[in-house]
């Protein structure tokens, strides 16, 4: 003893899974935390290695590499993809570059994890799903980063729905409420420009609740009727937003995406659903809420209290029935046997650790992880139907299948 | 002392307000409780007298009179209206008879309180509102029984909106969830037949949240896009429902109203709104919930916790801001100076006491109470637009004004 | 039809139960509401009649009679007791007069309902319990007004404990938090003087949680260790408090009761308990909270949300276990079959309606109602042990039995 | 680019802080997570290095080193302390070894972080605090691991108390409820034997709430009155517990620590407090709850919802006042500027990241971190007074100062 040991010595005997991540902003930080932590907590069949991170600004990307623990850095994502020492490309860039990077990575024989939404258009998403299908035959796996499926409480909800605990589904109501645009003086940013962000509340927040609703329900949406609104159409330009739809003289720029999106929908089974995504719900910070009502029970989840799942067992005698707060921290809850004792809750970032865990297992096992690019395409089709309905004065619009 | 006193002796010096109530089921019991209690709690300019109750079954109506404290009983509402000793007709029957009774009562010179929804059709409601307007010129007052405006918490919410505390309105989300039809074996009743009930979840539950949303927002809805569904289309007939859409042989009858109604909407100001009314939300018993988000703050109310109003003051520094639970039981809260000390909550039935209080004051003061028949008509127009949109495949349907 | 009917005609065929109530302040109003309403809601074996109300100020008591619906008024409680047309004496005065009035009423052959706490001293309570025992042999019944036993949620909790649902009891934690004295400028009142109120937080709030804890546990406390404190020892005198412990010159008077009382305790079974009663818990208005933990489950109740009972079933698999919110508004819940549909909650005052109901049934059935004067005496002994422990530097003090 | 980079390259320019950790069970895993993550999230003046981990079982400790990312392993803590390449000794062993290890580490010139409780006796704690004081003069820093001070919500609460937002303190009520011993068949473990664990619920759970109460109040407790109980006195022996107080024949062993501890207390300012620590609160998994009531406001925290702080501002008009839920995830909240956007909550383990952050800053700045060994000693004195009071039949026992 007393001699320096290599970290992850036993892990070193496992096959490596060398990761190249493109993008290093909010999502890059979150994915890094997931990759760094996953093998410290879970027993994995392959050992993830934070091999290379990529960003356009060399100084910034080197700082990010140091900060987040990546061994090397690149400034061109094509160079990253070209490297032999990368097994998996993890795409954390804005949506307008997802398709190009993912298609190139798949062509280069890499596994791909792509942040949500899969793409900015259905066409791009179709190409990606198609490429993923072909790549699968060559042994490459793909996944889209709808991380909220991997909060233990939502995973437990899915498990309970699949077990039949709520019976025939009648209603899903989902909302994702934030408030960071409620101030009219909040500046214009790339997130408010359609050419970069694809959409506003819809792709950013709506995509999450569409995916989560379909995942929990275990079935796709069939059609939607939608309203969208942009409450504040001009916002101040700041240095970071110069050039973004600038007006001639007054220092403001045009907002070209939706501030809020509401839609009602039918599932293929006939269950009804409602969705709301907004950045104008004053006081609601990250309030992703979803409730399912079935013939035999109900389930409710709120991301602001992510360690809790509320469950009503409708088969109990009414005398003692009620919505119960399951504190999803027991060893027999999803992912929890690897973490802390009961009652010691997890946080937002753990969803990325769980995503990493499940992806490593899927790659090692050669089976398609969920959500696949096909799942991501399906969400994209819902978003497209929402946009189409909103443009057609709320006309009910069926989801292309 | 020691001699028997007449009850309400001092009150006897006040002008009486003699009430004739038509109907004695659930709503009749609730209104009776309101009329009996109001002068025990509030100082009123006129003294309500429970003069006469009316129902078709003589034995039953006499029993109801005894039970609920009405001095006399009638079996024909026309006889009730013809009586000289009735000042106010309180209509607690199902919606299909509202128009006929109200029009006759107004023609007979009575004040009228009519349960919600005002009528089963816009046409009826228009006649009623028109008659009410004429009657007002003759000194007769009319009110529609949207009692949930008179929970202290919702009245406080209205007051806070009117004071500008939430600023420019962005979102309203309202739902009214019950679960009494979730069992497919729950029997057919008149509430499930269109010819009697007018509609299902829409008129029963949806009417409440439409009224409350417009009341709290202080502005009308401009247009809607709607979905409705009837999940269970045939239900067992029981003795009480024989004759209701009976199928030939199998002991079941047709459900001809909506089980659930979802719609999204725009207010005239441009704010967005969503509504859901259902009888299939397992575990939700009487969950009327409404939240308003404005530029400066938010308010949220849940009827299952009716003594509470949640308020977010968006002008506070973010360090200390949060949704606060106002326990609406302080002497300076609406209606509360007459009740119990802080923290000693009220219940559902108190909304009827408050409704009675406000109506008596309005009649004594000769000013139109809120909600007026015109308000009831406006709600009816929203309901009609919802039905039209649902029939037109969710097409956005403007509210006739 | 069309002829005036006597109210309560069918009820008139029942034997009457003629009530004489002494006191007409807060508790008088609450009891009046209970007596007025009970026969409108419940089917009763005897018909309560609000026969006579008593108070020292003739003008005020006559106004109270009118307001609250009492047929006659008296200014001397001895005259009330002497009346032949009174079957039940309902004592709503401050605690220093309970014993004298109750003993006289029992001597005069009346049934007696006495507000809590039963008396200001153990000695008085012993005399009252002894007299009640003798009177019971003569067919007279007695009850003490611990109304919180009769919130449907607490009654359900008792029922569930009695059914063995939580198993061997381990812990009870009870607190009753108010905040009306937190302002040092709140004036002196009779409630802050020992000679009138007996004690402060202890008798006013502590008595409620001691009774409720023993009732729910189904067993008595065995011993206590207690701390009390008077945070503000001098308060401004106002007109209403002139003469109350006035200081010589500065316009203030002495507070001679406890502001807050904390104690820990053992039940006879060995379960542990903690209690806190205070008027200094800023923001807590009427927060009576009690939780029981047993080997097989737990129950929790909060008076500020009095329609809810929280239940944890410890025998469920941990995967799906959690505290559930039972909305205590179902027809099979205590008292609820007579009220409104599920989810339509009750309020504070309904506890007095239920108290009246249960007392009428007990009198008609000739069986001792709960809580009896003996129960009230037992609570008094706990309060005395608390005071003794506090005086003896927290020494563990057994409850005299 | 494209060349392998050393991780933490910029960090490498900082002075290192080489950590040697003793113990690798639950707390070892939590501390490891803290040390591994802290420099990825926060900008630190020194770079923590996971240099060496120590445990008695060589195979196990090597596995732990690999799992948790420690460079080397030792099987004798004395060897760890003797190493030149260790700057800080992090003690994560059971309490019976804290004193010996800490004293040796201080003698060897190391900084020391010691898990709570500081020791199993006041005598040990005094020696440790004394040694820490001497070591401080030599530039060595010490800290005790009361990690719950470093949940952002509790840190915010402390900040708000220090700002005077709740004014003169009146009440603190604290409880720490778990339920893992409620099953009588749960086996005996070292945690249930006094010679190893020192105490049961008191040292394990009570120590946390005593520290947190004093920290938040900003003042020490002055005296206590306490009850303790061991509900189940014999428990089954399992392999892991052979030799632990074995009974002769029946396969059970003696429980020699407290199952539950209740105490009431006075702060030096005269404020009152209550405490409860138990492992028998069925359904409560990790329910550390604390509420402070002051003259101007109140604060409440629940570890099961650790991203929330409840605040009542008593200076607001009563019309709009209420307990507000501050979601403690804003950039201006303690520690939060380094983490995720608003509403993206943290978990239990983040308290260890924050503890690591604060300790690194303190060491780099040469100032004593909080809580110091002196703070840990003070907690130990409270625990001793609790034990003494419980032995003396709850007699009020002053805290030695």
From TrEMBL, chains A, B, C, D:
It comes from the Bacteria. The gene is valF. Residues 157-299 form the GFO/IDH/MocA-like oxidoreductase domain. The keyword Cell wall biogenesis/degradation does not apply. SUPFAM superfamilies: Glyceraldehyde-3-phosphate dehydrogenase-like, C-terminal domain, NAD(P)-binding Rossmann-fold domains. This is Oxidoreductase. The keyword rRNA processing does not apply. InterPro entries: Gfo/Idh/MocA-like_OxRdtase_N, Gfo/Idh/MocA_oxidrdct_glycsds, GFO_IDH_MocA-like_dom, NAD(P)-bd_dom_sf. Coiled coil: none annotated. Residues 17-138 form the Gfo/Idh/MocA-like oxidoreductase N-terminal domain. Keywords: Oxidoreductase. GO terms for molecular function: nucleotide binding; oxidoreductase activity.
């Amino acid at each position: 003893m007393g001699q320096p040991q290599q970290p992850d010595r036993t892990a070193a005997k496992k096959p490596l899974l060398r990761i190249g991540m493109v993008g290093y902003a909010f999502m890059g930080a979150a994915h890094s935390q997931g990759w760094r932590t996953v093998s410290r907590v879970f027993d994995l069949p392959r050992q993830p290695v934070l091999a290379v991170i990529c960003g356009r600004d060399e100084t910034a990307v080197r700082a990010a590499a140091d900060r987040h623990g990546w061994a090397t850095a690149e400034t061109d994502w094509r160079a990253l993809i070209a490297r032999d020492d990368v097994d998996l490309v993890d795409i954390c860039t804005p949506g307008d570059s997802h398709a190009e990077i993912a298609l190139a990575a798949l062509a280069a024989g890499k596994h791909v994890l792509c942040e949500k939404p899969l793409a900015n258009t259905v066409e791009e998403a179709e190409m990606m799903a198609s490429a993923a299908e072909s790549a699968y035959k060559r042994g490459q796996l793909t996944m889209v980063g709808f991380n909220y499926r991997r909060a233990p409480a939502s995973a437990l909800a899915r498990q309970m729905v699949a077990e039949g605990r709520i019976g025939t589904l009648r209603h899903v109501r989902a909302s994702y409420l934030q408030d960071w645009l409620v101030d009219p003086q909040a500046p214009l940013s790339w997130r408010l420009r359609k050419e970069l962000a694809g959409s506003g509340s819809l792709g950013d927040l709506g995509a999450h609740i569409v995916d989560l609703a379909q995942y929990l329900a275990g079935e796709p949406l069939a059609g939607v009727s939608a309203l969208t609104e942009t409450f504040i159409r001009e916002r101040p330009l700041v240095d970071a937003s110069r050039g973004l739809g600038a007006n001639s003289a007054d220092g403001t720029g045009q907002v070209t995406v939706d501030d809020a999106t509401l839609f009602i929908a039918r599932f293929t089974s006939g269950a009804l659903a409602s969705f709301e995504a907004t950045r104008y719900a004053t006081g609601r910070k990250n309030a992703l809420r979803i409730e399912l009502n079935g013939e035999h029970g109900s389930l409710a989840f709120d991301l602001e209290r992510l360690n809790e799942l509320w469950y009503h067992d409708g088969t109990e005698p009414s005398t003692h029935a009620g919505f119960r707060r399951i504190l999803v921290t027991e060893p027999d809850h999803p992912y929890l046997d690897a973490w802390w004792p009961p009652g010691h809750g997890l946080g937002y970032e753990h969803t990325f650790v769980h995503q990493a865990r499940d992806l490593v297992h899927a790659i090692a096992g050669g089976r398609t992880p969920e959500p696949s690019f096909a799942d991501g395409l399906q969400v994209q089709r819902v978003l497209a139907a929402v946009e189409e309905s909103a443009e057609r004065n709320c006309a009910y619009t069926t989801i292309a299948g």
